[in-house]
């Protein structure tokens, strides 16, 4: 939704052309965004050493319900590799097993034959100490389950009362080989999320939710979502607008315009404020609105009371979990 006018010989005239553009944009938007100059996409796996590979696999599969997938080795290690990686020269071959841990990074476990390295786990405050945290929906039930399997629970679940992690409940437990791991749960989110941050921490809690459900195919509900979307863009009251933003858009919503991509509620909110500031007498009105499964299409116009159609265009919505997940904006170009 922009007021900039660029001369063009082409104009979106038919729904067929619009849908072709939608397909192109869908392909482009399902992108892997490089997070650093190293082009890191995310965490693929976490590696840990164990004294007994078979016992570790049994714990991960029989107790935690994970699935062992791939195995390498035993792989003999030459002297140069051991020196480069600070491995005792008398340690034997390594065997590596990759475990699928559900939604998120996999777990890679290493067993070194005739291991001459330290057999002592690092203390919690030692450099290099680490742990793996597993998200659970019901932490009390999970604790009881682990106890029934003979797993040592380190203390009792504790709920953070305030701060960025308010609402998060966690507890540590110990594996049969002595490594410390964690259960964590925050079914109602964490405290920091209430401030509508630009970046929200990834969570398997969100990944376990089925993105598209039968409810997302409800034409009446989707029509109401789009109508509220239009209210957002016309709302001048910041408090009311923010309430609607959180009601209508997913926290990681992505708005794809021809000139830019806005990521997250805050980005979109800032753009709306800028648009309203530049065009105080303008408002958006509906030309037509239709839905198809969890996709909605809105033809709109933007202008003053005297000239309501200074700018016109079309928005395409992808609705998942009852909220707008993707928003594709097409602005008609003036000839």
UniProtKB/TrEMBL annotation:
Signal peptide from the UniProt entry: none
PROSITE patterns, alphabetized: VOC
Taxonomic placement: Bacteria, Pseudomonadati, Bacteroidota, Flavobacteriia, Flavobacteriales
Protein name as annotated: VOC domain-containing protein
Coiled-coil intervals: none
Ranges of residues in domain VOC: 42-186
Organism whose genome encodes this protein: Flavobacterium ginsengisoli
Keyword field contains Metal-binding: yes
Keyword Metal-binding annotated: yes
